[in-house]
Amino acid sequence: MANFEITSGKVTGKGIKTTIYGAEGIGKSTLAGQFPNPVFIDTEGSTDNMNVRRLPKPTSWQMLRDEIEFIRNGGASCGTLVIDTFDWAEQLCIDALCEKYQKKGIEDFGYGNGYVYEREEIARFLTELENLPLMGIHVVILCHAQTRKYELPEEMGQFDRWELKLGKKTGSQISPLVKEWADMVLFLNYKTNVIATDKDGKKHKAIGQERVMYTNHHSCWDAKNRYGLPDVLPLAWESISHLFGSPAQNLIQKAETQGISVQAQPEESLDDFQPIGQGYQRVTGIPDALADLMEENNVHAEQIQHVSSEIWKYFPADMKLQDYPEDYHDWLTANWPEVFQAVQQNCADYLPFD
Q: Given pLDDT bands bounded at 50, 70 and 90, which one contains residue 257?
């Protein structure tokens, strides 16, 4: 019979998983930028005018996963990882699946199989993200918001309901995953203040708007939290800052109580993300997504050519990577883990890594 240890009490030292969504320009990125020591993965370029630390904009689904793995492996000091935004990341996922299965679009799979594949891929992605909170790193997923008409069975008439802005036919499958994954879902919106202008309270006027965050479920929006927050809070970091002490410090204290010596490590630069050797030349004449993956992993064109011609026997040995068919470039990008493994196994002597 297997033996299991029963624990009790609150689990401390873990990062908080937060999903934040709201209308365009409401301040999602600004709020995320105030989380503890954030590093952004900016999938759409929305932080270009913000003074924040960011990794290179991912041009493929694999590059996005590589950047998360880089943070997990301690490539840079990071208290919070921010994915800005997830609806753009979803498109990278769809593009990768279409490239992998040689489809022009997600609906070309037939019988809804494409949406099933995407749901499985997103579920694996969120599972990988779980590793960061276990290390004491907060994770924030930002998403745009959209409205759709909604009708309750017990009520007459329709009303607008705010939801995560994901694919029209994928949102019903992906949105629940993102919301269930999170410890806290915050909906950011404008609240209009209205006052009565007559003594009978029949006439009213708006006297201004304020930006707020909704923290609990409502018939007009999705939200939740596990920390007993009020239903509505001012849209300000101070409204939730008390939840984010310092998970990393909690881990250090826990280690010290167990007699483990913890020494502070020097802060790493995000410039260390790209493990490029001296004199590495970025490959031109190929899709940016493939060039980015090659540059991140210090893979040279000659190595791809060696694997493609000598190992897989796809092309002549004297044929350049830039001259390979476009669909083969797409295949290399979509199947990068397999390609990179082949390079590591077969090219160490052919062209040493820097």
A: very low
Q: How far apart are CA 203 and CA 197, in angstroms?
A: 5
CB hemisphere CA count around 35 (13 angstroms) = 29
Instruction: Pick the closest to residue 182 from 231, 227, 238 (CA basis).
Output: 227
Written as six digits, the tokens of 190 are: 């404008």
Q: Are strands 17-22 and 184-196 parallel, antiparallel or unpaired?
A: parallel
Q: How many CA atoms lie within 13 A of 266 on its CB side?
A: 2
Binning pLDDT at 50, 70 and 90, where does residue 274 land?
Answer: very low
Indicate the DSSP class of residue 36: S
| Whole-number Å distance between alpha carbons of 166 and 71 | 26
Residue 34 has pLDDT above 90, yes or no: yes
**What residue has token string 């994928």?**
170
Q: Are 293 and 66 in contact (CB under 8 A)?
A: yes
Torsion of CA 323, 328, 334, 340, to 10 degrees: -60
